[in-house]
Design goal:
TIM Barrel; three-stranded parallel beta sheet; lyase; six-stranded parallel beta sheet; Amidohydrolase family protein; ACMSD; about 15% strand; single chain; alpha/beta; Amidohydro-rel
């Protein structure tokens, strides 16, 4: 089964809710990722043209991470209810990751249970930072513990905050450079904090081939001993227990580097729909076939299904 784990869908109802809460939604409107019959028909036709059987929908980066708990809970419940509607209407074509009202742990655990147990979601999603805080922050331990107890998937997507540096945000690089930088920072936080070893049952998926991780992993191995001496295990060992989606904008050397560094068995198909649309969407599949040879079949058609239990 060919499953695309990196696919977005935002309804106007959801975007209209989170906009006054402080999230800029302009980049997500009018791009073909809505829930109208016309947009869904076009999406399904595109999926068919690339042989994609199913997409796992994610509300990221417009996740309901808000300082105000009532706002976070309201947005999370709306997002999950909307997604449950789409997965019920199209049970063979769509699954979904649950949105969580972070950083409010009790509410997030309750919504995680509702998403997984009542709405049939296949995991949860967060961004690479929660209101600027690291995913490895000790305050999030109860969430990691519950994800580990359930043995479920956590999909990690950039926040679009330009890694909170003006050197990215003020130079028109928020997504082209900022997003993979955020991926790289987040996954390295997890590795250095020992999250994969402490919570071995959580199936963590990092977006965009792990950002720059395939190029940096040997450097991290070489330097963590003196720069991060509290790291509990060799970072490359921990990194190879995570999964990484294949969004690489059709750049064959990138997907080859990820496969050689992290293992082709740790790669799962991602397209970043609607930002890779049309021929770019089809290229998101074709470049894996071009770059990985005999390993492509597993990446395209087996790894995600096994990971998600679909």
């Amino acid at each position: 089964m060919r499953i695309d784990v990196h696919a977005h869908l935002w309804t106007d109802e959801y975007l209209d809710l989170v906009e006054p809460y402080g999230q800029n939604t302009s980049a997500h409107r009018g791009v073909g990722a809505g829930g109208s019959p016309e947009e869904l028909e076009a999406r399904l036709a595109l999926m068919d043209s690339a042989g994609v059987d199913r997409q796992v929908l994610s509300v990221a980066p417009r996740v309901p991470h808000f300082a105000d708990e009532a706002q976070a809970v309201h947005a999370a419940r709306l997002a999950n209810d909307l997604y449950a509607g789409f997965t019920t209407r199209y049970p063979q074509r769509f699954s979904a990751f649950a949105a969580l009202p972070l950083p409010h742990l009790d509410a997030a655990l309750k919504e995680l249970a509702r998403g997984l147990d009542d709405l049939g979601m296949v995991g949860a999603t967060v961004t690479t930072a929660v209101l600027g805080g690291s995913l490895a922050d000790p305050s999030l331990a109860p969430l990691w513990e519950e994800l580990d107890r359930r043995g479920t998937v956590l999909y990690v997507h950039p926040s679009g905050e330009a890694a909170r540096t003006p050197l990215i945000a003020e130079h028109n690089m928020r997504w082209m450079v900022g997003a993979p930088v955020e991926d790289t920072i987040a996954v390295t936080h997890l590795l250095l904090a020992g999250i994969p070893g402490r919570y071995p049952n959580v199936k963590i998926i990092i977006s965009h081939l792990g950002g720059a991780l395939p190029m940096l992993l040997q450097r991290i191995d070489n330097q963590y001993g003196w720069e991060s001496p509290g790291t509990p295990e060799k970072p490359s060992d921990a990194a190879r227990r995570l999964w990484y989606d294949t969004v690489g904008h059709g750049h064959v050397p990138a997907v080859r580097a990820a496969a050689e560094t992290l293992g082709a068995d740790r790669l799962v198909l991602g397209t970043d729909f609607p930002y890779e649309n049309g021929d770019l969407f089809r290229r998101a599949i074709g470049y894996i076939q071009e770059g990985l040879g005999a390993d492509a079949a597993g990446v395209l058609d087996r790894n995600a299904a096994a990971l998600l239990g679909l």
